[in-house]
Amino acid sequence: MASFPIPVISSSTTILTLGNGALPLSTQPGYYWYQWTMNGVDVMGANTNTLNVTTPGTYAVKVKGSTTAAVATSANKIIMAPIDNQAKSNHTKITTLKQPHNHARMYIY
User: Which of 3, 79, 80, 69 is nearest to 34 (CA)?
Assistant: First the structure.
């Protein structure tokens, strides 16, 4: 029986951009079966190795390597709304502080 790796979700960013349409998510090709989820619920019709995301949420992909293989699930990928929209809708203040070694931390008040 062939061994298939746990799926990994790839994307160019984790923040949706205003006016730029969908954010593509992808995972490795070559699995027998795919099912994407958003916030733990199956996304209807999302059964290929790519998904175009237009809504913020927590995404994952379930895969099977063959008809008899067990289902493997990726780690979650959290996609956030544009920061400007989050701040306006929640009336929050967002501050990004530069940390040593070029890491940034975001604090939401």
Answer: 69
Identity of residue 47? N
- Please state the domain extents for the chain: 23-81
Judge whether 77 and 11 are in contact, CB under 8 Å: yes
Cβ neighbours for 90, distance < 8 A, ≥ 6 positions apart? 108
pLDDT value of residue 5: 87
* Class of residue 18 by CB neighbours under 10 A (exposed 0-12, middle 13-18, buried 19+): exposed
Alpha carbons 46 and 52: distance in angstroms, whole number: 9
pTM confidence score: 0.73
Lowest mean pLDDT among 20-34, 48-62, 71-85: 71-85
Per-residue CA distances from 36 to 64, 66, 73 (Å): 12, 17, 9
- Judge whether 37 and 60 are in contact, CB under 8 Å: yes
Instruction: Show the DSSP H helices in the chain as ranges.
Output: 83-90
Q: Which two tokens stand for residue 57?
A: 């949420």
